[in-house]
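FIELD: query
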Amino acid sequence: MHILLIEDDLDLGRALQSALKVEGLTSEWLRRAVDAPATVDANTIDCVLLDLTLPDGSGFDLLARWRAQGQQVPVIVITARSAVEDRLAGLDGGADDFVIKPFATAELLSRIRAVLRRSARQASERWVLGELVIEPRRHAVQRGDVALDLSPREFQLLLELAREPGVVVSKSVLSQRLDPLGEPMDFAAIEVHVSNLRRKIGAELIRTVRGVGYLLQS
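FIELD: result
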């Protein structure tokens, strides 16, 4: 996997490149908008980590240019901007995820894995996980031959767990992803949604890892 990092902060850039290397990911680090490629080739770049505030331009402009060209390489925005308006602009502009500085490196790596998995699935409209069949575009789920009636929040929770089946997704990550444009969701609310989802899809399919989070049995 090859990551394109566009970040002008020297300390953060070095730290991220080291963390990516430990994970077995190769990376290219650029510090200016002018050095960014005109297009991002999915055959050579698997994910872009994009700072919004660059010394010679805006990451928003780069993102807009790539998406206008039809480039679908996953882009994770990393920025110190925390205003809802900025997050809306990033997500509406085509960002796949939005991470606010300062952030834990482990969380960023988890989000990279998630968007890579999601990107790989985009070629298919059906996610088949054992007896579960999920169709994200139709907001439809079935187990075996039975269609399941999930609330929008339950469906969103299932998608987040299904992006990395067999991998623990922490409550802190879920709290951010389930409401990315507002305040992180309360852990108690997450537990309620998980309980309701278990009741509908089968309790044995979602395992609790005590003190960490949940995983979907693959």
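FIELD: remark
The longest strand covers residues 2-6.
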